């Protein structure tokens, strides 16, 4: 009974004994069960690998024999000869749909078997040849015939299965900061840490794009094959990689990159380059356009392994392309600890089977002194890694992250490593929760051989104390908040220092913070955003305000939002609604208000930016978020692409402009209120903004028209409507020389192959020509009649606009000498050839064949072609000889430099014009200061005219292009004004009687001096104007501008009667106050009588399609130039009012509004844009300035239709005439720029900017 009672009481124990006995019996009887149990309990040695490949780890102290044995144990070496990656040939039928018949037949051919793939493999080391008669096959199964049938730039998204990136329409290169990767983890051991690559972010562009491309090009010039090299057999993969990169750029950033229609030229708007991708190696195309590194490995058909065969790598440390090219993967990674033991086998196996449609990414990191990009062996920077500098500071220490992607190319089967180096100051970790503690853990307790490979020892003596301080601060300031259990896990002392961390803690970091900071943090990206306070100007402070939306799901699960969002303020009844505060630096409760949206207490709403943005992201605040909720959040977050940077942070807007004041009921008011902002659309680029980016910039006066494009409101418009203009906008802040050189870059020089047939001179020479030496030549085509005709053409046109030459002296002396004694390298010969070249240009430029026709309208650029202007052969002969007279500084040298400059400017070669103008000015300066001159003599008066010509040209370049002055203006008082008191020949007398060229020239000089004074006075008035706040307009007052405008009125009133005109008829003939028919000379218009002039035919007309009237002596051009210069000066004086209306509308007064209206009215129908003047553009002076001035005016006129303030002023103050003429004026200016864009780089730049604004077709 006792035993039975025990059994009944302890039945569970007895049942356990029975189960144990039966299990033991089964194990003894059944061998397979016994082996399975023992293996799991590790009661036997490590089991032999069941795979047909060797073990994953082979200790380095064990050697493999030649037969593949390990200490007598038979080991099967990996064999990948018959292992091929998955093929994508199944997409060929889809691609065949758009192929031609011949190519379609090839693409639809049956697939070859595996035997053909191995037997006819494309040679690994032989150059790729698309013309092979017998098809060869790549590792991915494509034949050479199929690759040929696909042609250039096939649909790689279809071939690879990786979609092209979404167009990044709102991309702003000025704000695209490098992404701060943090690839830290614990336990820290050597793994590849691959994740799936994001197709939209394979290649990225940042605000360092232009400088980084230049840096890489400089590295190649210095190091050559150490940064770029390729071996035979890599031709196909390099071509394929290049095409995929360019295709990616064009798809991702369409505003900045494009391919020509024949796919032979790559257009890069950021660099302003056009690359002929057929004439240079593909890797050089990448070097010049894609600032990222590429290493290409190819499969060796003999062993199935992958070898480094080509690359462009400019960011390597301690190695370079030259030291690694040709190596197999294991050889390349030999210095990496544990690679052979732990990763070599896995990598080789992965590479052999890596699919095309599964690209991956990873990051590696290190700590550096400074930001060394490329450091080959022996580089001086290496010495810094061998010591611990005593004077090293934390400011010098940087985290270097090499972010890498890996993908197989579909056609060649090659695998491409793509990587780029990014640097972050270690100081920034101070504001990144948990990062200092995690990095400390790695530096202190990381595996020894790994940390030695990382080579962080040389900075640890500075970084470790700083990181300890940062970790302590984060605990103290609450950015790292832990409960008691977490404090126990963290093992944090009372003073906040991190002593050690358990695996539980670091697992938590691995699952939350590590992934958060290892994620692809982006600025300007489609999955995240950087939010900054409205009035924050510090770049470092902006970085501290990062809100990584991408990983909000991770943060919200494990950590309080305030730990990562120091400027997020709780509000609402349960503190579940978070608003980004622009003024608070710590979280605080905001009282509930009826103006706030209602709050669901079970969820929190993160509202991004100001109240104008209606995008909200719901985040659950319960104990745990469901996966479905997280997916929904990310779906909502994707819709925020690019919107955060465009959120308008508007201050309260007033209901009118200026201070409150009583005014007559008839007084128009100009409201600054705008239409409500819609979160589903782009920011209105025209509306006035009070954000810091616009209001923080007081007015800075610059007369150069292109500087107007630096106005914040205009930049905002251009970056949204014409984002491709960004590369130019950045250069506009620089001095003018950078702008004009940038504009001219890429333009072809005048060709040198146009020359005259010459013969040796045979005949008598004067003593002077015999003394000069040198063989003299003659040009059979230059007969006496031809030379006289060309010289007369010059003096009847150019010399009336720029009268620095003496017609009588030239015809009687210079022309006679070259005709009777031929040409040499003396001053007379060079001067004569330049005069003849300009004479031919004057004839052809006025009556020659137009170089183009647009919609039936002949171009206003006549004669020759865009690249070969009229008179080029004569000009080339002068260029051959001009070197012999460069060193003199007399009147003839000033004239030669000026003549050559005029020819260059007539051909729109603005840089050459500028350089020769500077040469003329410097020669003139030496001539005036180093010689005794009789200013009252005819030659002295001619020197005055030459001096003032140089002054006019130099001042024009300074005011219009912001180019530096030579100091010639300082001699103005010494020289004085020309009097034209020399005896005129009969031809000049007739010209002056008909065109009044002396009066026009003197008036031009006076106006140019006045414009320079106006420019200086505006700057002076700004310095004298007190500003009440940092956000004030800061520009000239309305009163000071009014005074300057009165000086213009005074100048106009003092014009000779023959030059005056009616304000109501700027296109008419001169009309003094008392008009009589005798005022006009019959020779002004040979086809019309004086009476007909006023009744039937104006001097200028907007009718551009008919053949223009040809006025003798360029009368129309002289009149148009003077009047246009006046309206230009008037426009410049009143332009500051427009700036104020755009950027400080709340400060506008009635007087300011009237100034804007005057500015707008002065932009209408400038005579220079009308016919007949605009129909002979080669003869128009100052070509370098008109296109960009028209660009500025066209932008302002465009904004008057959209900006509320400008629109109201236009409607209420500009008057009916403005509305009648404004559209016609716009068409005239567009036609001007369209005409010149084929031969003038500045006009082409203006045209590209205007295309997006006025929605013009490409051909236009």
From TrEMBL:
Keywords: Nucleus. It comes from the Eukaryota. InterPro entries: EcdB-like_regulator (IPR053181), HODM_asu-like (IPR021848), XnlR_reg_dom (IPR007219). Pfam families: Fungal_trans, HODM_asu-like. GO terms for molecular function: DNA binding; zinc ion binding. Residues 673-694, 1071-1080 have a biased composition (Polar residues). Residues 793-1052 form the Xylanolytic transcriptional activator regulatory domain. Residues 649-698, 1064-1091 are annotated as: Disordered. Residues 654-672, 1081-1091 have a biased composition (Low complexity). GO terms for biological process: DNA-templated transcription. This is Xylanolytic transcriptional activator regulatory domain-containing protein. It comes from Cudoniella acicularis.
């Amino acid at each position: 009974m006792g035993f039975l009672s025990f059994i009944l009481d302890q039945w569970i124990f007895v049942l356990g004994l029975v189960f144990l006995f039966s299990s033991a019996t089964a194990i003894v009887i059944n061998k397979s069960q016994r082996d399975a149990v023992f293996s799991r309990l590790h009661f036997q040695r490590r089991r032999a690998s069941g795979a047909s490949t060797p073990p994953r780890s082979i200790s380095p102290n064990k050697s493999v024999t030649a037969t593949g044995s390990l200490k007598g144990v038979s080991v099967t070496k990996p064999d990948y000869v018959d292992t091929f990656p998955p093929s994508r040939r199944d997409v060929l039928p889809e691609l065949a749909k758009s192929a031609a018949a011949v190519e379609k037949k090839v693409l639809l051919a049956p697939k070859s078997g595996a035997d053909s793939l191995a037997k006819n493999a494309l040679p690994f080391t032989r150059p790729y040849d698309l013309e092979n008669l017998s098809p060869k096959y790549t590792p991915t199964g494509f034949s050479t015939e199929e690759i040929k049938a696909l042609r250039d730039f096939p649909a790689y998204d279809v071939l690879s299965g990786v979609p092209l990136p979404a167009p990044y329409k709102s991309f702003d290169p000025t704000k695209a900061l490098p992404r701060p990767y943090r690839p830290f983890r614990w336990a820290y051991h050597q793994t590849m840490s691959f994740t799936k690559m994001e197709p939209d972010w394979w290649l990225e562009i940042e605000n360092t794009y232009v400088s980084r491309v230049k840096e890489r090009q400089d590295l190649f010039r210095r190091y050559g094959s150490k940064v770029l090299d390729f071996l035979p057999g890599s031709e196909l993969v390099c071509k394929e990689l290049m095409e995929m990169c360019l295709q990616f750029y064009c798809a991702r950033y369409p505003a900045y990159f494009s391919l020509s229609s024949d796919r032979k030229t790559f257009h890069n708007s950021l660099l302003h380059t056009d690359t002929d991708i057929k004439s240079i190696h593909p890797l050089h195309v990448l070097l010049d356009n894609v600032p990222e590194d590429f290493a290409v490995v190819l499969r060796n058909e003999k062993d199935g392994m992958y070898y480094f065969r080509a690359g462009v790598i400019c960011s390597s440390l301690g190695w370079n392309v030259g030291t690694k090219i040709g190596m197999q993967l294991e050889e390349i990674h030999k210095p990496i600890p544990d690679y052979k033991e732990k990763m070599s086998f896995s990598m080789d196996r992965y590479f052999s089977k890596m699919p095309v449609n599964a690209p991956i990414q990873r990051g590696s990191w290190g700590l550096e002194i400074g930001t060394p990009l490329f450091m080959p062996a022996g580089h001086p920077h290496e010495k810094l890694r061998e010591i611990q500098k005593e004077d090293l500071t934390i400011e010098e220490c940087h985290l270097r992250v090499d972010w890498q992607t890996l993908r197989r190319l579909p056609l060649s089967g090659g695998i491409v490593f793509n990587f780029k180096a990014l640097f972050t100051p270690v100081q920034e970790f101070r504001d990144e929760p948990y990062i200092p503690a995690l990095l400390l853990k790695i530096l202190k307790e990381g595996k020894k051989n790994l940390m030695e490979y990382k080579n962080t020892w040389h900075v640890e003596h500075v970084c470790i104390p700083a990181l300890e301080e940062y970790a302590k601060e984060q605990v103290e300031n609450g950015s790292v908040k832990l409960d008691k259990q977490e404090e126990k896990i963290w093992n944090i002392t009372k003073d906040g220092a991190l002593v050690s961390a358990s695996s539980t803690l670091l697992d938590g970091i691995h699952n939350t913070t590590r992934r958060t900071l290892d994620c692809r943090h982006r600025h300007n990206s489609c999955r995240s955003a950087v939010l900054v306070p409205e009035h924050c100007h510090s770049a470092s402070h902006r970085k501290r305000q990062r809100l990584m939306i991408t990983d909000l799901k991770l943060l919200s699960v494990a950590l309080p939002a305030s730990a990562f969002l120091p400027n997020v303020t709780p509000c609402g009844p349960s503190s579940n609604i978070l608003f980004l505060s622009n003024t608070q630096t710590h979280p605080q409760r905001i009282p509930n208000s009826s103006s706030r949206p209602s709050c669901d207490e079970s969820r929190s709403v993160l509202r991004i930016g100001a109240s104008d943005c209606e995008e909200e992201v719901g985040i659950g605040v319960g104990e745990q978020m469901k996966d479905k909720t997280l997916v929904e959040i990310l779906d909502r977050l994707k819709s925020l692409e690019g919107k955060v940077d465009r959120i308008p942070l508007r201050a309260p807007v007033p209901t009118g402009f200026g201070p409150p004041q009583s005014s007559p009921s008839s007084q128009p008011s100009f409201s600054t209120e705008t239409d409500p902002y819609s979160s589903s659309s782009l920011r209105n680029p025209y509306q006035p903004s009070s954000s810091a980016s616009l209001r923080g910039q007081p007015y800075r006066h610059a007369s150069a028209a292109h500087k107007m494009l630096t106005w914040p409101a205009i930049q905002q418009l251009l970056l949204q409507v014409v984002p491709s203009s960004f590369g130019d906008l950045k250069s506009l802040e620089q001095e003018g020389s950078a702008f004009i050189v940038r504009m001219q870059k890429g333009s072809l020089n005048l060709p040198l192959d146009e020359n005259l047939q010459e013969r040796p001179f045979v005949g008598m020479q004067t003593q002077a020509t015999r003394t000069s030496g040198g063989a003299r030549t003659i040009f059979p085509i230059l007969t006496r009649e031809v030379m006289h005709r060309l010289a007369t053409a010059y003096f009847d046109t150019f010399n009336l606009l720029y009268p620095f030459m003496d017609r009588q002296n030239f015809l009687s002396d210079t022309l006679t000498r070259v005709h009777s004694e031929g040409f040499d390298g003396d001053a007379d010969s060079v001067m004569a050839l330049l005069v003849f070249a300009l004479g031919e240009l004057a004839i052809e430029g006025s009556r020659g064949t137009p170089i183009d026709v647009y919609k039936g309208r002949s171009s206003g650029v006549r004669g020759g072609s865009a690249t070969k202007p009229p008179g080029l052969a004569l000009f080339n002969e002068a260029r051959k000889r001009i070197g012999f007279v460069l060193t003199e500084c007399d009147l003839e040298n000033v004239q030669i430099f000026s003549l050559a400059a005029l020819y260059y400017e007539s051909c729109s070669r603005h840089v050459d014009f500028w350089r020769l103008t500077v040469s003329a000015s410097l020669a003139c300066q030496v001539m005036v200061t180093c010689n005794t001159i009789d200013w009252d003599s005819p030659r002295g008066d001619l020197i005055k005219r030459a001096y003032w010509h140089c002054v006019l040209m130099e001042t024009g370049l300074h005011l219009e292009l912001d180019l530096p002055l030579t100091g010639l203006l300082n001699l103005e008082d010494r020289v004085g004004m020309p009097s034209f008191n020399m005896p005129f020949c009969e031809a000049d007398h007739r010209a002056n009687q008909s065109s009044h060229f002396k009066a026009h020239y003197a008036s031009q000089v006076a106006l140019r001096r006045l414009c320079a004074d106006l420019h200086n006075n505006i700057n002076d008035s700004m310095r004298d104007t007190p500003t009440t706040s940092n956000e004030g307009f800061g520009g000239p007052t309305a009163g000071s501008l009014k005074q300057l405008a009165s000086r213009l009125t005074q100048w106009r009133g003092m014009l000779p009667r023959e030059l005056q005109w009616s304000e109501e008829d700027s296109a008419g003939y001169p009309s003094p106050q008392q008009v009589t028919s005798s005022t006009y000379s019959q020779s002004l218009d040979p086809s019309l009588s004086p009476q007909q002039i006023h009744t039937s035919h104006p001097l200028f007309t907007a009718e551009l399609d008919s053949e223009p009237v040809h006025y003798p002596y360029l009368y129309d051009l002289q009149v148009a130039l003077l009047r246009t210069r006046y309206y230009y000066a008037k426009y410049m004086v009143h332009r500051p009012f427009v700036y104020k209306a755009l950027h400080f509308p709340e400060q506008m007064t009635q007087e300011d509004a009237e100034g804007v209206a005057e500015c707008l009215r002065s932009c209408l129908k400038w005579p220079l844009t009308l016919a007949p003047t605009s129909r002979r553009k080669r003869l128009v002076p100052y070509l370098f300035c008109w296109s960009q001035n028209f660009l500025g005016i066209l932008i302002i006129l465009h904004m008057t239709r959209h900006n509320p303030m400008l629109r109201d002023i236009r409607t209420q103050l500009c008057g009916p005439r403005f509305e009648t003429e404004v559209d016609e004026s716009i068409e005239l200016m567009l036609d001007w720029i369209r005409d010149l864009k084929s031969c003038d780089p500045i006009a082409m730049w203006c045209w590209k900017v205007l295309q997006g604004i006025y929605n013009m077709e490409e051909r236009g």
